[in-house]
Amino acid sequence: MTTQTLTPNATTTGTPAGGPTRRRPRRCGRSVARHAGLAVFVAFMLYPLVWMVTSAFTPESEILTGPLIPEQFTLENFVNGWNSLTRPFWVFYGNSFVVTISSIVGNLFSCSLTAYALARLTFKARNLYFGIVLVSVMLPMHVLVIPQYIIFSQFDLVNTFVPLVLPKFLATDAFFIFLMVQFIRGIPRELDQAAAIDGAGPFRTFWYVIFPLMRPALVTTTIFTFIWTWNDFFTPLIYLTDQSVFTVPVALSSMVDAESNSGIGMLLAMSVLSLIPIMLFFAFAQKYLIRGITTTGLKG
Amino acid sequence: MATATAPTRRKSRLNRQGRAAHVFMLPWLVGLVGITALPTLASLYLAFTDYNVLSSPEFIGTANFERMLTDDRFWQSVRVTLTYVLVSVPLQLAFALLLALILDRGMRGLTFYRSAFYLPSLLGSSVAVAVLWRELFGHAGLVNSALALVGIEGSSWLQNPQTALGTLVILNVWTFGSPMVIFLAGLRQIPEELYESARVDGASVLRQFGSITVPLLTPIIFFNLILQTIGAFQAFTQAHVVSGGSGGPVDSTLFYTLYIYQQGFTAFDMGYASALAWVLLVFIGVMTAGHFLLSKYWVFYGD
Predict the structure, then answer these.
(1) Which terminus of chain B is more exposed, N or C, with fewer CB under 10 A?
(2) pTM for this prediction
(3) CB–CB contact A17 B42 (8 Å)
(4) Does the distance separating the beta carbons of B270 and A294 come in below 8 Å?
């Protein structure tokens, strides 16, 4: 689907064309106007998120009527929301983390192994296999979800994390295979040959030479798997019906459905909590995230 | 003797690599057969059956597809989805391109603005933001309070079939940050010399935009268009959360994927749901192919 390739030195933070030294004084006024305009637009765009955070700390009765910054802060919304379902919210948090971390490990493990074989080892059907990878990238999940559900329910695996995690260990996110193949192709073959001369077989070459050098591709895979899995709603909605195994998005959605006896305040408070891991991740991995988007076109 | 053993040794090395390759690919091969290929075939078969999970699938030929022709909710979901795609994707890309152009050259604070604009893209598909949208556009929500300030009486945006889909369009446009980041990268690829020589020739900013920026950016525009269109066709979470899974009011937010979900996992009419899924697959395939064919006429790949 994408024709761009991942290059380790792709950068998005280079010096802007022109550079500060070329800026002439008469442009100064225009630049101030532009910053003012952009600042207003940023404020407008982020206002809903700011409102969500401050409202989470506002007493229920004042959320819709009061000022943006509440006159009195309260943690009541968090306390109410935390215990509004049959389990405390940390259970859903824990479930989400288990699913997310396992998915990351699964994708890193299975996709890197497959990608190495497709990029470096010579065997007959290699091009055919790579073609299949490309085709499966484009297959929408909706076509597969019903038979997959039937299979997993036959094995009595509904209400477990297996249907969410097992596919990752079987490299069903074929896009990452493609990404890693492209990346490995950029690693000099001389390194493999040197390893071969030293007597390393394919397994040692992979583990000691290629895998450590794949770091940028592995980081991209980790970031996108984290975000997609943490935010994923459709798959857990289908497989997880028991509150004890709910992930955070499913728990939130079931709080919405029961809104008649829960308030806006607790909904917003739990929404804020559910976004914290993503926000933290964004803060730490921003550089790599943006690089991943510009080189692969993947969306967060 | 050396000449005789060299080819066989080479061959055995290939065999060894072939065996190793299949060991490396084992997880993927298992997944390909068990989680992708067989389910695809099963799904294709189920599309021609009546299957309610409790009894075994009964082959009914093309009845599921004929049923769609007279199924009002099917057509409604097609209308909703097409409206959503055709309105929100162009708007989203226009915003993305506009902001990328503003942010592109000689800009201080680029990293800050880029992150700020990108943040909604990162959160946009989450249930939490869908919850936020419910409250923003609810009857007593923030949007109506803001409108009241300028003397306009708002409606119940999400309860009104005329406006419910519009709020979801706004949500999608709000996530213009991810195509914007791709546009920014594309703009950086355009050589600055082109603009310099255009300025020497006295070309206006608009002329530069039309004759340099847009033509050289068409591959990126195309790439974003395909990506965002496919994404929009598969939108689900927002509609599900905002309407409580119903696609209401009066099916005005009945996205196609939501209809598949309802048929498959609420009504357990899995044969019909499979048929619907295949129609979606064919539609996305045809549309993507169409984009590629049309791209010949407007996408400029340079040399």
Answers:
(1) C
(2) 0.89
(3) no
(4) no
